Amino acid sequence: MHVTDPIADYLTRIRNAQMAGHRIVEIPASRIKKSMTEILYDQGYILKYTFEDKTTENKQGLIKIALKYDTLTKKPIIRELVRVSRPGLRKFSGAGDIPRIINGLGIMIVSTSKGVMTDKKARDLNVGGELLCYIS
Predict the structure, then answer these.
(1) Domain 6-135 maps to which CATH number in 3.30.1490.10, 3.90.550.10, 3.20.20.190, 3.40.720.10?
(2) What confidence score (pLDDT) does residue 124 get?
(3) Which of 13, 18, 30, 42 is the most exposed place for a label (fewest CB within 10 A)?
(4) Residue 16, SS3?
(5) With contact defined as beta carbons under 8 Å apart, do 112 and 127 qualify?
């Protein structure tokens, strides 16, 4: 299966796994997905993750993500995963214009010339870029 928008596929797989109540979701790996997974982990949205390099028929490998749920309500920690920039409509922003998500409670993932990072880090480094998605 060939996916035209790997980031939308990544977000949808996480969203669907959460709706189904799964503990672990497996996603085909890519460099940008690995960066996004590390950001989700660093920001406390997922429990843990592993990268499995496959040298078999699919050469891209696999990312296994352990999803995080609230211990009391059993609701997913990630309430919203929204794709901002799409292949048909790219959205770019300068360092000062990167939107704040829920007044800083959510995060925007930005693809910059210095790599994939959170909106806060992009502002700190004073770099703009493509607004990939936001998480709250």
Answers:
(1) 3.30.1490.10
(2) 96
(3) 42
(4) helix
(5) yes
Identify the band that residue 3 occupies on the pLDDT scale cut at 50, 70 and 90.
confident
Q: If 0-12 CB within 10 Å is exposed, 13-18 middle and 19+ buried, where does residue 130 land?
A: middle
Structure tokens at 85: 């920039």
Domain boundaries, the chain: 6-135
Cα(125)–Cα(113) distance, integer angstroms: 11
8 Å CB contact between 60 and 69: no
The size of the chain, in residues, is 136
Q: At what angle do helices 31-42 and 6-19 cross, to 10 degrees?
A: 40
Show the tokens assigned to 99. Answer: 């939107």
The DSSP annotation for 30-96 comes to -HHHHHHHHHHHHTTSEEEEEEE---SSSTT-EEEEEE-B-TTT--BS---EEE-SBTTB--EE-GG
Residue 72 structure tokens: 């009391």
